[in-house]
Amino acid sequence: MLDVSILSRILESTRRFLQEPGRSFFLFGPRGTGKSTWLRATFPDALYVDLLRSDTYRQLQTRPERLLELVRSGPRSTVVIDEVQRVPELLSAVHLLIEERKELRFVLTGSSARKLKRTGVDLLAGRASSKAMHPFLASELGDRFRLDDALRLGLVPLVLGDARPEEALAGYVSLYLQEEVQAEGLVRNVGSFARFVEAVSFSHASVLNVANVARECEVERRTVENYVTVLEDLLLAYRLPVFTKRAQRAMAGHPKLYLFDIGVFRSVRPVGPCDRPDAIEGAALEGLVAQHLRGWLAYRGNRDTLHYWRTRSGVEVDFVLYGPDTFAAIEVKNATRVRPDYLRGLKAFRADYPECRTTLLYRGPDKLQIDGIRCLPVEAFLKALHPEAALP
């Protein structure tokens, strides 16, 4: 494994695939995914307004119009406001400044969309596009990517760049609980929410059963539904819908749930004597592929969409990518050999959608073709996943 000081320097110099759109934009992404590092490298001469600084936060929360004075006092053409959701009232001032100076560009970052949505503030009326920063992709790290390390620690830059990545990962969710959930008053009972985060980790890479989670946490079903929305608004989790286009069978009706990074999943997922290691490893590998596909789609401009496929009889395909550029079905197996039953879901999907390309990803070393289905080593697939190229 690389020396951590060397790794930290490598992470800072790693070229990210995110492209700035040449106009004002929101940049969303969980804490620690590298938004600030990318912004300072991309806009070195910008005016920075960091709302994580307590003095800046107090001044602008008390008097949001002070932003007008800051921007009007200098000739800079780009203004970066970090963690804008902390003072969402600033968006009205941003809107006014964009109207005053057409050449002025704002970059508004956030690790939560909840306060922006709940307060109903002006979201710039379409004058700013929306971008997202994701954890590292394997192709961003290149030869430095190690599948086993990624499955253990995840790919959040804040974690990988720390001298003690295991400790950083253990404290990552606590940081959110303290600085986002508790400080911003997003839930009434932080203790119940912390128990929920642990309980919902059992639903990672599977269909979320809200009733079961509510029973485990000893809270009402409506509370769990609200907690899931909080996780999504904090960009810590997302739901994957069922692919139903031109459906020829009775389909499942509920989405699957994923935590945004596999290291975060591993850090909050309790492990005990009754847990099967292969089940946890399988969910981890599927989640790692999910976050790569999601990041790849985002950096390509979201021309295609990501789904899963499951019939009511239980036949399933882990991922379906669909859109003008791609139609592909992908199954992920945490195994070093391909068994015939691993191909069952892909064959069923191909019978309904013969134009679709089918792929099985597995832990073995060889590229295979079995019954017309490509079987690829998962590590090689992830390294080849690049937003400027088609799906490997």
Overall description:
This protein is an alpha/beta fold and 392 residues long. The protein has 2 domains: 19-132, P-loop containing nucleotide triphosphate hydrolases (Rossmann fold); 138-384, no CATH class. It has 17 helices and 14 strands. It has helices at residues 4-13, 35-42, 54-62, 66-72, 90-100, 114-119, 138-141, 147-153, 157-160, 165-182, 190-200, 210-217, 221-233, 262-268, 277-299, 344-352, 378-384; strands at residues 25-28, 47-50, 78-82, 105-110, 129-132, 206-207, 237-240, 256-259, 305-310, 316-322, 327-332, 357-362, 368-370, 373-377. It has a 6-stranded mixed β-sheet, sandwiched between helices. Strand 11, helix 16 and strand 12 (357-362) form a beta-alpha-beta unit. The two termini are 27 Å apart. The model is unreliable at 1-7 (pLDDT under 50).
What's the SSE blueprint?
Layout: H1 4-13, E1 25-28, H2 35-42, E2 47-50, H3 54-62, H4 66-72, E3 78-82, H5 90-100, E4 105-110, H6 114-119, E5 129-132, H7 138-141, H8 147-153, H9 157-160, H10 165-182, H11 190-200, E6 206-207, H12 210-217, H13 221-233, E7 237-240, E8 256-259, H14 262-268, H15 277-299, E9 305-310, E10 316-322, E11 327-332, H16 344-352, E12 357-362, E13 368-370, E14 373-377, H17 378-384
Parallel strand pairs: 1-4, 1-5, 2-3, 3-4, 11-12, 12-14
Antiparallel strand pairs: 6-8, 7-8, 9-10, 10-11, 13-14
